């Protein structure tokens, strides 16, 4: 399928950090995503106390929403500002510690222990560092990943999930010749080839 001029597009980590610094975060939503609410039963599949992963989490309000339901939340985000804003906007006390396996990375954990946010590149994570997950809420990660990195991203995600996990993925559909992204256009055929 033709993804227009997007195939070669690369957004650097510096550009993402700048978006947070400038408050250019139109992708952040103040309310729980209606699709997560609609498909919550699919994610949970009758289970409680799940480990749920938020790739490129920003300061997603759904993290606290699901943690309040008794789930354990792990997120990864390049912007320390976003992570700190998440905790302050929800009045959640937290502690901060280095991640020994990843140079320069930090982990911010709520003092209640049920929300752990890693501040580093997602590609620095592995199941040996963060464990495996029962569920994934990918609301804006795959569509934010540079098209050239999609295979690497999908391989990592597949490695991070348990066999019986649920993966909720939100994409956007539009003519990729008319918008350079992000969010990037990811055709359904590519999703199938990436995730099987």
From TrEMBL:
Catalytically driven reaction(s): S-adenosyl-L-methionine + a thiopurine = S-adenosyl-L-homocysteine + a thiopurine S-methylether
Binding site for S-adenosyl-L-methionine: 16-27, 56, 77, 121-122, 139
PROSITE patterns noted in UniProt: SAM_MT_TPMT
Gene Ontology process terms (BP): methylation
EC primary class: transferase
GO CC annotation terms, alphabetical: cytoplasm
Entries under Gene3D superfamilies matching the protein: Vaccinia Virus protein VP39
One GO MF term attached to the UniProt entry: thiopurine S-methyltransferase activity
InterPro entries in the cross-refs: SAM-dependent_MTases_sf, Thiopurine_S-MeTrfase, TPMT
One Pfam family of this chain: TPMT
Record-listed E.C. numbers: 2.1.1.67
Keywords: Cytoplasm, Methyltransferase, S-adenosyl-L-methionine, Transferase
Localisation per UniProt entry: Cytoplasm
UniProt family annotation: Belongs to the class I-like SAM-binding methyltransferase superfamily. TPMT family.
Protein name, per record: thiopurine S-methyltransferase
Organism listed in the record: Certhia brachydactyla (short-toed tree-creeper)
Upper classification of the organism: Eukaryota, Metazoa, Chordata, Craniata, Vertebrata
């Amino acid at each position: 399928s033709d993804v227009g001029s997007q195939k070669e597009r690369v957004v650097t980590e510096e550009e993402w950090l700048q978006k947070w610094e400038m408050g250019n975060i139109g992708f952040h939503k103040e309310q729980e995503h209606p699709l997560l609410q609609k498909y919550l039963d699919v994610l949970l599949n009758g289970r409680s106390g799940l480990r749920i992963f938020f790739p490129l989490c920003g300061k997603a309000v759904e993290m606290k929403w699901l943690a309040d339901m008794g789930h354990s939340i792990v997120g990864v985000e390049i912007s320390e500002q976003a992570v700190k804003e998440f905790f302050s906007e929800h009045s959640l006390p937290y502690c901060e510690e280095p991640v020994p396996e990843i140079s320069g990375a930090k982990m911010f954990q709520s003092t209640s222990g049920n929300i752990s946010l890693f501040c580093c590149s997602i590609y620095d994570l592995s199941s040996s560092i963060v464990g495996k997950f029962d569920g994934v809420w990918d609301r804006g990660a795959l569509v934010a990943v540079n098209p050239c990195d999609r295979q690497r991203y999908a391989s990592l995600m597949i490695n991070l999930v348990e066999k019986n996990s649920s993966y909720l993925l939100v994409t956007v559909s539009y003519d990729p010749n008319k918008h350079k992204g992000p969010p990037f256009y990811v055709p359904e055929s590519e999703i199938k080839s990436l995730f099987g």
